[in-house]
Amino acid sequence: MARAKILGRLTWRVATVAAVRDETSSARTIVLDVPDWPGHLPGQHVDVRLTAPDGYSTQRSYSIASAPEGNRLELTVDVLPDGEVSPYLARVLSVGDPLEIRGPIGGWFVWDPEKPEPVQLIGGGSGVVPLMAMIRARETVGAQTPFRLLYSARGPETIFYRDELRRSSENGSGLSVTYAYTREVPQGWERPPGRVDASLLTQITWAPEQEPISFVCGPTGFVETVADLLVSAGHDPARIRTERFGPSGGGS
Fold first, then answer.
1. Which residues belong to any copy of the FAD-binding FR-type domain (predicted)?
2. With contact defined as beta carbons under 8 Å apart, do 117 and 51 qualify?
3. What is this structure's pTM?
């Protein structure tokens, strides 16, 4: 049975685009219907394969944004400069189109709703996508696990899922959301533009003595910096889970 599950994850499936919606001027969420989808855990990803008429094929990995539920899943794709796959997914792919996917993939960077410890989510740019799957999964199962999200982005116009995050943080569910803008801030914003630093982490995140599990996702430099800052602040390295993306891995 275990071997059958592994082989299932390595099998390419043809999904159908059920809907698309823009998140920002450069990012789009793609809703897929996937027959016989085996289900996924919040934090996992899939491989996406594109094949040209001449037979040329290329593939990239994209985090799943949706909570585990039925045969439908969501991917949010941000167009990368000089990207080979992301421009097609975010600007060309339309409702009714087929899309080859393989997965789910990953077993370390996942959240278990049965675990009671506080959860600290820290995302840089599109690194918020798998963290959103965790937030959605928490709401779907009605978990009371305390969640905090620290979301670093270039500016207000680059935030994914803004309205949904606002609603989730205001509905009394126990989700706290904090934004850190690196280039542009809204008018009247208290903190000047800047990267996530030790001071902000101390103010916003769970204290080490509360023994949270931390999920950090984003560009390699962002993830390494944040992970180092968490360890320096006294967090147990074994309770820090990281997922990196960049030119050598992740979507493009």
1. 10-111
2. no
3. 0.92
